[in-house]
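Worked example 3 (structure in, sequence out).
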């Protein structure tokens, strides 16, 4: 009996040890996954657009969204390094699709905003197109637009600009953030009739205005940020349909690409989603 009791006690100890090892392994796995997901990676994407009304064009486009930069020198230095990495990839066009700050009520928001806008010039001489996100709306969108103008960095708010790239001209339509009610549909002007076109906006819900057509590039969703196996994302703050919450959706009249983005909001972690900037190889053919 004593021997049998000792065997049961040993079995219980082994079970407890196995449970602790399993728990530790699970914790290490999730910790590694979270830390790995927070390291910004380059994501390569190929998009093909059929448009018989424009001359064929192939462009490489860098997309950065949802930076959510905290105040301080270290995050700003990391942002500068990221911009230099993007420029070194030699894109023809750089798109920044909103949410540049972590805290829209930060104590040093004015200086932080100036530093972010000034840093964006590091991609020069590559043309860049910029729109605001909901965090810019929450920290006074008009102040952001004023500062962009003061630093001679063009931001698009429900308007269209023709950008001259090394490969040829492209019309970029920048529409306001749908999530905060700044979205206003504007059509392409006559000058864009025979030129390649794309739209940038923050919240992909704007892409599903019934008048929208063509290519739309957005952010905002963080691809869910916390995306659990078998469960999916805990919350995605958009009215866009689920198929347009992350990555590439190709429809009959509209193509939508939603970047996972660089930073995080609310909680500084990502599970099942990768922090990334995107390098799009865009081919427009007749």
């Amino acid at each position: 009996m004593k021997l049998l009791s000792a065997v049961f006690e040993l079995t219980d100890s082994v079970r407890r040890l196995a449970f602790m090892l399993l728990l530790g392994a699970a914790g290490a796995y999730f910790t590694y996954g979270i830390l790995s997901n927070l390291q910004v990676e380059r994501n390569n994407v190929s998009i093909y657009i059929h448009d018989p009304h424009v001359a064929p064009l192939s462009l490489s486009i860098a997309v950065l969204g949802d930076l959510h930069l905290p105040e301080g020198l270290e995050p700003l230095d990391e942002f500068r390094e990221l911009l230099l990495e993007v420029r070194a990839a030699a894109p023809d066009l750089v798109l920044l699709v909103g949410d540049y700050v972590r805290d829209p009520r930060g104590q040093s928001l004015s200086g932080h905003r100036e530093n972010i806008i000034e840093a964006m010039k590091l991609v020069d001489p590559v043309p860049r197109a910029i729109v605001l996100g909901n965090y810019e709306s929450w920290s006074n969108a008009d102040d952001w637009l004023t500062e962009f103008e003061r630093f001679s960095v063009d931001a698009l708010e429900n308007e269209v600009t023709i950008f001259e790239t090394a490969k040829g001209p492209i019309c970029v339509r920048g529409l306001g953030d749908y999530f905060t009610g700044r979205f206003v549909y504007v059509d392409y002007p006559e000058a864009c009739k025979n030129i390649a076109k794309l739209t940038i906006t923050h919240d992909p819900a704007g892409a599903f205005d019934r008048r929208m057509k063509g290519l739309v590039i957005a952010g905002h969703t963080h691809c869910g940020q916390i995306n659990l196996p078998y469960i999916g994302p805990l919350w995605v703050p958009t009215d866009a349909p689920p198929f347009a919450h992350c990555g590439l959706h190709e429809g009959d009249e509209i193509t939508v690409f939603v970047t996972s983005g660089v930073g995080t909001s609310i909680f500084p972690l990502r599970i099942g989603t990768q922090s990334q900037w995107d390098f799009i190889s865009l081919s427009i053919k007749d």
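Notes: The chain is about 25% helix and 25% strand. The chain has two domains: 1-37, 41-285.
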